[in-house]
Design a protein that fits this description.
CATH architecture of the domain at 32-252: 3-Layer(aba) Sandwich
Protein name: DNA/pantothenate metabolism flavoprotein C-terminal domain-containing protein
CATH topology of the domain at 32-252: Rossmann fold
Strand order of the largest sheet: 7-4-1-8-11-12-13-14
CATH superfamily of the domain at 32-252: CoaB-like
Family: Belongs to the PPC synthetase family.
Mean pLDDT: 93
Pfam families: DFP (PF04127)
Oligomer: single chain
Largest sheet: 8 strands, mixed
Shape: globular
CATH class of the domain at 32-252: Alpha Beta
Bound molecules: ligand 9Z3
Distance between the termini: 42 Å
Domain DNA/pantothenate metabolism flavoprotein C-terminal: 65-117, 188-306
GO molecular function, one term: phosphopantothenate--cysteine ligase activity
Length: 344
Amino acid sequence: MPNTKNYHTSQPDYETAIDRNVPDFPVAEVLDEDKYFQNHEPPSYLPEIEAQIDKFVDFHCQQTQKKVVLVTSGGTTVPLENNTVRFIDNFSAGTRGATSAEYFLENGYAVIFLHREFSLLPYSRHYSHTTNCFLDYMVEKDNKVEINPEFADSMLVVLRKYMAAQKANSLLLVPFTTVNQYLYTLRLASQLLQKAQSDALFYLAAAVSDFFLPSSRMPNHKIQAQPSGKLVVDLEQVPKFLRRLVDSWAPQAMIVSFKLETDSSILIKKSVQALNRYHHQLVIGNLLQTRKNEVVLVTPDEAQNWIRLDDTQKHQNVEIESLIIPAVIQEHENWVKNWTAKNK
Ligand code: 9Z3
């Protein structure tokens, strides 16, 4: 995909990094979420992203009337140093997000793809991480490069879908690397998406850090060997931003979050807990071990809708996202209907 941006989220932000004048605890009594934004600087490139998202949302609200989904994808990092050599990462290749984005596009949505920079992307995912090198898809013939005929048919299918999305201007790629960049960009995008009202959908598949190192305590330079021979890292809990998203950043939108567990006995309990805590509309529960073959859709009435690939589907390499997305879209249609009826 063409790279039109002038920044990389994986590079440290020297301009806005540490401000040692910022107090660890503000005087005023504010919610943790607000406190976070008061004490952490926004990424310097945010105005550039604001202009892109604003234009994209306006285009679809005014010209195409497409519903707009914000898909988050990939893991956020927590830097341990300002000039970042070491960081803590969250597991996610970006498969769920990139694959889901393709099915949303196929189903007529415009997609803002908020992703970990250099993780899987819609369409290119079919070729970027599947061999040692993308050149494996090429052959030389008569002094020219050609697509290996073995892959040509399947690549044509993907190419057509990719070109259609480009032509319709229905896919906007927005990167993040750190949890700070993610939170600032999510808040910005959700506020800009208010224009789309209930036509906006949030599909939060990114694996977001639960703990982080506040900028007021972050060393500027690479941490050196410690006399104790140990490195003790004292992390704070990342504020529960989902509550703010539901309450005030995007109150008219439908919000879907993912719950990732490794212990099957607590998956449903934790999914219901998330719905009770944040009051959003849908949690998709999945286990790390089986996430490509089964997920459970949990709604506030505690109904559980399991989506599973059967053996034939597994054999045919059916992607589970091709079943998840129509179910989510159905829920979104109900949400829009109810919202429209309420606001007549
Ligand atoms: C997920 O559960 C995603 O489905 C996966 C996708 C990260 C498992 P891959 O990208 O993996 O296909 O390799 N995402 C949500 C993960 C998460 O951090 N959820 C939080 C939680 O479970 C809530 S926001 O507490």
